[in-house]
Design a protein that fits this description.
The complex is a heterotrimer of chains A (about 500), B (about 140) and C (about 110). With about 500 residues, chain A is an all-alpha fold. In chain A, about 75% of the residues lie in helices and about 0% in strands. Chain C has about 110 residues and is mainly alpha-helical. Chain C has a single domain, classed as Helix Hairpins. The chains are: A mainly alpha (about 500), B mainly alpha (about 140), C mainly alpha (about 110). At the A-B interface, helix 1 of A face helix 4 of B.
Amino acid sequence: MIPLILLPVIIPLATFILLLFFRRSLVINQTVTILSAFIQFVVGFMILISVAGDGILVSQPGNWPAPFGITFVADLFSAIMLILAGLISLVISIYSVSAFGKDFQKGIYYPLISILMMGVNGAFVTGDVFNLYVWFEVMIISSFVLLTLGGTKAQMYGGLKYMTMNLISSMVFLTGLGLLYGQTGTLNIADLALKMRTLESSPLITTIAMLFFIAFGIKAALFPFFFWLPASYHTTPVTITALFSGLMTKVGIYAMIRFFTMIFVHDQQFWQPLFLTIGGLTMVVGVLTAASQYDLRRILSFHIISQIGYMVFGLGLFTISGVAGAIYFLAHNIVAKTNTFLMAGIINRIKGTFDLKALGGIYRTYPFISLLMFIPIMSLAGVPPLSGFFGKLLLIIAGFESKQWWITGVAVAVSLFTLFSMIKIWNEGFWKKTPDEDVPAAKKSVPFTMVLPVVILALLTVVMGIAAEPIIRISTAAASQMINPDEYIQAVLGR
Amino acid sequence: MSSQIIQISAKYLKPLLLALSLFVLYRGHNTPGGGFIGGLLAASGYILYMMAYGAKITLSKMWLKPFNLAALGLLIALVSGFFGPVVGEVFMAGQWFSFLEIKLGTPTLFDVGVYLTVTGVMLIIMIAIFENLETWN
Amino acid sequence: MELILSTVIGVMYAAGAYLLLRRSIVKLILGIIFLGNATNLLILLAGGLTWGAPAFVEKGAGVVSQGSADPLPQALILTAIVIGFGLTAFALALMYRFYRISGTDDIDQVTE
């Protein structure tokens, strides 16, 4: 019937159409979205099992043969990302049931989440550069609307900056794409990987690679391009920030990893120092700026930037262990970062504010929830046995293996600063006494649908840390599939 | 917005533009045209009518409200892909039927879906703008 | 011909970048539209220009013959135009809402 690979794209589209027809009924919206997100999650697992067992999955919709038609490819990296995307959409759908008022949810909120998931899933399974552009656009247009849903002044201002930077990124992507087509005559990723290995390094190819680097760098919030993120992520409701933090920047990193391990392999003397320097600067700038903030959402937004620097550092090592560390860190970061934003939403529900100076005493009144929130905070800081520790360990080991002492030292120092930030959040938010009254206020009840996603993600963080070995093995296999793309090219083109 | 000239001419130009859009849609496969430009022409017929008579009257004259129109278009486009697996080929493989002398196929069906979607989306945007303009004035 | 077209594309990119940095939000959106159109022209130029030959096949032939134009950049440009249309529609709606909220066209007035 329908190949397994196309399901992650067809299911959200079908959900979107169904929800547009039934947009008056809130209950149908909620149940269909949660069901569809769960099915996407399960399909992601099925794809992973199929790829691990049978090899890379390929499908050619429209029956046009490989270099001419659009290919849909799933290798191990795509499968990992599909599982995580399904998980995040499931978690956010459950959380939004009680995080928003009924009027907010009754509009086009749930259809927008489905279309966003279609764009994200499509970007993960496509094997054609222009198709990647189309899925990026689907993703960013729905994110524009989600960002400004509600129409407050802060959202408009943040939305304007977000929109402009993302539009510039799209234009730069399209420019690089046009030049790439002119240079090589093909837009299929496997065919490009084949052709690029025979072409000599030339200034035009370095220019094209730089254009793609800038385009993905803007999307992923790398060092000189990240200024849209702290300007816009804290203006929108926390649930939507959680959705964005788990998916949008990570798709940019996914595209960067795929392009720079498979296609743009020339001129390593130029690219390696560039990647490592930019990764280092991203880490440092993100974490130093976060250390001076007192608004919970702003601290977490700056930490997104700093953690992206780690992934670029892993990619810049250009070895299998470096890229494997980047993939594991990516998986850990998606889970932990979304969890911290959801946690911030619960804090806002309990206390009514995000300002760390006004918070306090949550540990005394809500001990169970505080324990639950302790897990993602410490996972981001890199405390064993949680997943953050293994992610950073992998990256540092890979850095030492490649003899990049300076940048690995920077990574360790940034990790200490991250620990400082996380301890500050725990101290100010949970541990200290409430500044207003010494008498604890009446205990507000937190809805079950808001706590359940945090429980799921916290459990997953613990499991990813304790059972890190199989995940590291899958990440290493995924990295080697990309650095030596012979299996990929064989599966798509047959030669 | 209620000049006599535009009111009379919009009444007659709207069906003309709709017919033109259907023609452009059908010839889109082998000659310039297609679903996207057809949808824009159909929407512009309605927009002309809206400029003459206002958004509320135009909305009451449509069988399918714009949201449902766009959703129906997407549904047709999605369904047109399923004809492939029914016959045994891949998703979205084009199937062609010869009916008298006219060739119909799933690409045409997909184009019709695109046509309806573009019409619906343009109308959603335009109705929102017109309603805003009316309350603003 | 390529020289003229690449000069025009360069001028459009420059105009788009200049407008993007202006103070008024209308000029910002015009700059985005300029950039989009310049990029579409670039795709056309990079795909190879053919004088006077449409991107179609002879009746009954199986493959595209040597003299006809390359159809792939044309398909890419059409998709890019449609996507650009959607983005412009949203940008205009945002600009309208921005004007209603802040009462001015001036982006420099944006403060937290």
